[in-house]
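Hi V.,

Quick status before I head out on leave. The structure for the redesign project is tokenized and pasted below; the design run finished overnight.
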């Protein structure tokens, strides 16, 4: 799965446009991500001009992320 640092995201939608699985979507105020669809290809990470996407290969939901990562990205 990927995690977006929304504070630095400029909503360019570049990540969503390169994602082959539609795992990222612009929902009006921010980019939403769908980890269950992500295949960890890394294309969005490379496409992001703001460098605010981090990839966590093999992880399929937020609960599996390390605690410090969840804290950093304010994910519950
Ligand atoms: S890593 Fe690939 S599949 Fe996953 S969100 Fe990014 S572009 Fe989409
Ligand atoms: S490519 Fe980066 S800056 Fe652009 S919408 Fe996606 S996360 Fe935000």
């Amino acid at each position: 799965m990927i995690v977006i640092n929304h504070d630095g995201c400029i909503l360019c939608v570049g990540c969503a446009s390169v994602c082959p699985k539609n795992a990222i979507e612009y929902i009006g105020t921010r980019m939403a991500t769908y980890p269950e669809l992500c295949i960890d290809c890394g294309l969005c990470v490379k496409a992001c001009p703001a460098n605010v996407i981090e990839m966590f290969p093999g992880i399929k939901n937020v609960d599996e992320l390390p605690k410090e990562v969840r804290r950093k990205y304010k994910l519950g």
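Above is the designed sequence. The pocket of iron/sulfur cluster (ligand 2) is lined by residues 4, 9-15, 31, 47-50, 52-53 (CB under 6 Å).

G. will cover questions while I'm gone.

Best,
W.
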